[in-house]
Each structure stands twice: as structure tokens, then as C-alpha cells.
Amino acid sequence: MPLSEHEQKMLDEMERQLFADDPRLARAFAPQRAPRRNGRRILIGLGAVVVGLGVLVLAVSLPAVWLGVIAFIGMLAGAVYAVTAPGGTSEGTGSGSPGGGNGGHGGGSTPHSPGDDGSFLRKMEERWEKRAGDDSGF
Questions:
Q1: Which residues are within 8 A (CB) of 68 and not within 5 positions of it... i.e. 6 or more apart?
Q2: Which residues lie closer than 8 Å to 76 by C-beta, 6 or more apart?
Q3: What pLDDT, in 10s, does the model give residues 27-51?
Q4: Which of 67, 75, 90, 126 is disulfide-compatible with 59, CB 3.0–4.6 A?
């Protein structure tokens, strides 16, 4: 069920407030971009699967169970290699976070006092109570 316009505005306001209060936490929970697939990595993995399949067929024609097990493990390793992204890259970090444009109005550089959190929560509670009062007329 899609959100109403009012709910969407409240959610956007909460997201902006989160980025203003704690940008590092907000970036940690922001959706990450999908890792880019490397064509070379896919080809190597696919090659390993094809070679493993050939060795598996050879192992079936010869009564060599151990060779079939090794071929199957090689096929599995090739498939996993082709599907996974390299572990050394961190493409999701940096300033390209989805809410990066919202950081200009709140100021992540100024330290916030403990009272800021209370006022934000108090405003949210007031809005919630106001909305609950509006919905009581079902």
C-alpha cells in the first residue's frame, strides 16, 4: 500500500532531520548502490564452470568418484567467483549517498546539544498525537 502525501512528507522530514543530526548514521543505513559486475570476473567464473563440467563428464565416464567431487567443487567455486563482487572494493562509500543533497541545510559540522534530540522527538510526538486525533473520526 503506497504512502499518503502527508505520510511521505513526514518521512522526508524525518530523513532530513536524521541527516542533519547524524550524517554518519544516516549513510550507514542508506541503501547502497549495487556493485558493478566485472565482465572479466564473469568470464573467468564461467570458464571454470565449463571446465568443471567437462571434467565431471570425464569423471563419470571413468569410474573416478574423487575426480567428480573435485570437478563439482571447481564448478561451484567458479560460479561463486562469477557472481560475487571483489571483496577489496568499497564502491558504496563516499559522498554519493542518496541523501547527500540534504546535508546543506542542517549542518553536520556544528556540534549538536543533547536538547536537540529531545525537541525533535517532542515535535514528532506532537505530530503523531495531532494525526491520531484527526483519525479518530472513523
A1: 56, 59, 60
A2: 52
A3: 777 777 666 668 888 899 999 999 9
A4: 67
CA distance linking residue 24 with residue 69, whole number of Å = 47
Look at the pTM and tell me if it is higher than 0.70: no
Long-range contacts of 10-19 (CB under 8 A, 24+ apart): 10/127, 14/124, 15/99, 15/102, 16/99, 16/102, 16/105, 16/106, 17/106, 17/120, 19/99, 19/102, 19/103, 19/106, 19/108
Q: Which of 13-27, 44-58, 84-98, 109-123 is the most confident on average?
A: 44-58
User: Measured in Å, how far apart are the chain's first and last C-alpha atoms?
Assistant: 19
